[in-house]
Amino acid sequence: MQKKATDLSIKYIKKNQAKYYSVDFFDFAGLMFETNQFLLNQKIAEVKTTYCSVCLTTNHPNTIHYSSLGDSRVYLINPQYLTQLTKDDKYLASQNIITKCLGMQGLQKDDFYGSVHSILDTEQILLCSDGFYNLMEKKKIAFFETFAKHYLNPIKNNLHELIKKNNHDDSTYILIK
Questions:
Q1: Is the pLDDT score of 93 beyond 70?
Q2: Could you give the maximum distance between any two Cα atoms of the chain, in Å?
Q3: How would you label 83-115 residue by residue, b for 16+ Cβ within 10 Å and e otherwise?
């Protein structure tokens, strides 16, 4: 059912995102709160999913808007460090008990957040699942060296090798270079 929740969320966001965007402001929290309400109204059993999202616009190419809920993360990667921009919604950092996710009953608008961050041309944005960042935290140097490569194919190939045979969970990622 998680795939169905994801597909329904994507469809809703594509159809409705323009209502939450003005020239200088993107109400990411409002969009995601309404997406949650839409999922709940579908009356589908266990339609829960975590998410992390980033919005880039041509109006402000050096600014990202981001939002997340659950344990998927957004990172900023530059040549010197890797910074986690989002926080996890987990009971304890060491346990995989998620306290908030899309499709959960009882969430209020302030449970969702949207934030803005300036980025430099030398920086990259990483969106990833808990399976990916758990592997990344175990091999920080190898992952950091991979992200420092200049071309996407070597990055993709190295990430594949780092994940292969070490993947005990979904290791999904999107790298925006």
A1: no
A2: 47
A3: eebbebbbeeeeeeebebbbbbeebeeebbebe
Closest by Cα among 140, 50, 169 to 99: 50
The predicted model gives 22-33 an average pLDDT of 87
Number of residues written out for the chain:
177
pLDDT digits (tens, 9 = 90+) for 110-152: 898 889 899 998 999 999 988 899 899 999 999 999 999 989 8
Task: Read off the tokens for 108.
Answer: 């209020």
Q: How far apart are CA 102 and CA 104, in angstroms?
A: 6
Q: What is the pTM of this model?
A: 0.87
Q: How far apart are the C-alpha atoms of 2 and 65, rounded to whole Å?
A: 24
Asked whether the beta carbons of 116 and 103 are under 8 A apart, the reply is: no
Residue 141 CB: number of other CB atoms within 10 A? 7
Q: In the structure encoding, which two tokens stand for residue 102, read together?
A: 């899309």
Please write down the HEC assignment for all residues of the chain.
Answer: CHHHHHHHHHHHHHHHHHHHECCCCECHHHHHHHHHHHHHHCCCCCCCECEEEEEECCCCCCEEEEEEECCCEEEEECCCCEEECCCCCECCCCCCCECCCECCCCCCHHHCCCEEEECCCCCEEEEECHHHHHHHHHCHHHHHHHHCCCCHHHHHHHHHHHHCCCCCCCCCEEEEC
